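Hey, sorry to bother you again with one of my protein questions. I've been puzzling over a protein and I'd love to understand its fold better. Take your time with it, there's no hurry, and the full record follows here:
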Amino acid sequence: MKIVHVLKGDPFSWKAHEALRVSIATAINNEVYFVCIRDGVYVLTKWEPEKLGIEPFDKFWETADMIDLKIIAEEEALHDRGIFKTDLAVENVEVKPSEEIKELLEEADGVFIW
């Protein structure tokens, strides 16, 4: 199955961690995409969540690499927030325009919005 998880909210809430946990779990037996749009792109940056008492995301990114979770950032969201690919903490991020993300969502067997 092709499953897409879309994170559209900021990384400061429980949703970001939960979205990554569920994405990783579903990626074990499926083709899974973790797509960051709007403020969700901040979760991919080099911010330091532990300074706010939030669990860091490092382990998630390591696990995502091992299980081939595909991570996508919306090009327009990065641009609107002044974020460049060099600002991202995750190396294997694909930057795609919203039109391609829309096509991915239409092709998916399941979509989860966070």
The mean pLDDT is 93.
